[in-house]
Each structure stands twice: as structure tokens, then as C-alpha cells.
Amino acid sequence: MRTTSRPLAGAVLSLSALLALAACGNDVATDTAAAADEAETVTFTWDRNTAGEDEDPAYEETTVEVPADPENIVVFDMASLDTIGALGGEVTGAPLDSVPEYLQDSLAEDAYDVGTLFEADLVAIEAQQPDLIVIGGRSSALYEDLSEIAPTVDLSMRGSFSETLERNATFLGEVLGAEEEAATAIEEIEAGIEEAQQVTADAGTGLGLMVSGGRLSAMAPAGADASGRGARGGLIYDTFGVQPVVEDIEAATHGEPVSFEFLLETNPDHLWVVDRDAATSAEGAQAAAEVLANEIVAQTTAAQEGQIHYLDPTAWYVVFGGIETAQIMIDDVLQIAD
After folding, report:
1. Pick from 61, 133, 204, 244: most CB atoms within 10 A?
2. Which CATH architecture group holds 41-156?
């Protein structure tokens, strides 16, 4: 009997030990699962304009829980596409016809088309069951429809260019698990912008100029339009420190369209030119350099000193944000230091 009772006691002891270990294991598993649950989403909050097209803006605080490390990301905002790619991520769905050549590497090899910058192919997107949808700027009006398909965030410009880029890069870095890469990129861009500002500080006056269809439009500091269409046109002044040739460009031009004579009258030291037709691939359009090659412009200080600077049209007009694009813009401004 004793020979059988000893093994039984040992078996009971072993079973008790196993149960205890299992209980501990369950606690560890529970803690691990809880930690995993906490890390499963990233929160993004912004003020969303809920007003209709012809109504005064009405903003509503909107918070969205975004899945961490999403596998299937749809992006309508080119600046966000840029940043996701720069941080090592990959976008599976985008308006493929609108993706610039230099951002093609941000797309998955089998990336699918989701429509245009303004209109979403909701059927195609829903069929792909994305984990995350990113909109911004031109595509902001798509929020209601897209948010019914998947968590959707609007990364439009809010605040200054630098503030927006830092906020969006930080958020996307958290989503992709690339926080350190995002922080490093932000530091490098801030340093680049400061360097550009130091160069423009002693460069004299300047005028941002948009050329399209053979016509000229003067770009002005954004002012109250810092988060809208004016933000794009004001970047050369607001972000990169170019001194406007006249104190109030918009008032001086009675809007935006200007003549060649206006360039001679105001006579800026530098002309900063965006070829809109090149940015939009307008067929048969005359290049901005050809438009400005005339006797009136030739009399300006900018022309005589070789200080007509052609900015990357895609970076400044289509994307104007994102990590790689910001560096392109910095390099464009630093060309006057060469």
C-alpha cells in the first residue's frame, strides 16, 4: 500500500504544482493580452467641418480609433502617402492616376485604384475591406461615406505647415510602429526649414507666382486662410521666410491675377514660380519658362540677376506636405544659396 501511496502523493503534489503554474501562466497570458489590447489602436482627434457645401463652417470634434500596424491602408491624401512611405509603410489603395512618380515606391506592388482625389470608388474600396482610410484636403468631403467602410482620419493641413507635418508624421509613426523614424524625420525637416529661412532672410524681396494657361497669378501669404487654399500659395512666405515684395499682395493685385507689367512695377529681387500646368499634366500647355520669356519680364531685377526660380510643381501644388516632399521644397529654396 505504501508503495502505491507515495507515487499518488507525488502525483497530487505534481498536479497541484502544475495547476499553480497554470494559474500563473494564465495571469501572464491575461496581462499580455491586456497589454496587446491597449496597443491595438491609436487615437486621432480633429475638428471636422460638418457643414454643407454652401453653409458656414460648423466644426465638431471627431475622435477615431485607428488599428495599429494596419495591413490594408487606403490613402487619398498625397502628403500622407508620402509620409507613410518615408516611414517604411506601404499603401495598398490610392487614386493611382494622381500618385506622383517620386511617390510610386510608397505603393504596394498590387495596389488597387480607389477613384480620384475628389471622388471615391466606394464599391471597389469596400470590396477590399481596408483597415484604415486616410483623407485630407481635396478628399475631406468623402469622410461620411468612407467612415462607414473603415476607420477614416482626415489629415488636412491645420495650423502651420510645420505644425501639420509634425502632427501627421507623429500620428502615422505611432500607427506604423515607426515613432523613432518619425521623430528623426521631423527634426531633419525643422533643421532644413531653419536653414532655408536663414538663406531667404538676406535675399531681398520675392514674389510667388503661379503660371497656368499662359496667365499669371500672384501668390500671397496665407493670413486668415492658413488652413485652406491660401496655405499652399503662402508657403514660400509663411514657412520659408521670403519677404513679400509688397506688404499686402492680395490687395495690390485686386485678387490674384496679375500682368507682366505688375512684375516690372513691383520688381521683386526673386520670382518663385510654380508651373501649375506641369503639376496637373495639362495637355498642350505652354511651359512657365516660355510664358515668362518676354521683353517685359526681361527688364525685372529677378530676370537680370538670374533669380527666377522654378519650384517643383508637383511638390508645391499637388502634394505640398509629407516627409520627402518637404525635403524637395527645402532644396528648392536653398537653390538661391548655390
Report:
1. 133
2. 3-Layer(aba) Sandwich (3.40)
Cα–Cα dist 132/149, whole Å: 9
Rounded CA Rg of the chain: 27
> What are the residue ranges of helices labelled H in 246-322?
249-253, 260-266, 276-279, 288-291, 295-298, 301-304, 313
Question: What is the side-by-side strand order in the sheet with 91-94?
Answer: 107-113, 91-94, 73-75, 132-135, 152-154
Residues 137, 116 contacting (CB under 8 angstroms)? no
Per-residue pLDDT of the chain (338 residues; tens, 9 = 90+): 333 333 333 433 343 444 444 444 444 444 434 444 455 899 999 998 887 767 777 888 999 999 999 999 999 999 999 999 999 999 999 999 999 999 999 999 999 999 999 999 999 999 999 999 999 988 999 999 999 999 999 999 888 899 999 999 999 999 999 999 999 999 999 999 999 999 999 999 999 999 999 999 999 998 755 555 567 889 999 999 999 999 888 877 766 789 999 999 999 999 999 999 999 999 989 999 999 999 999 999 999 999 999 999 999 999 999 999 999 999 999 999 87
- Identical fold between 41-156 and 201-337: yes
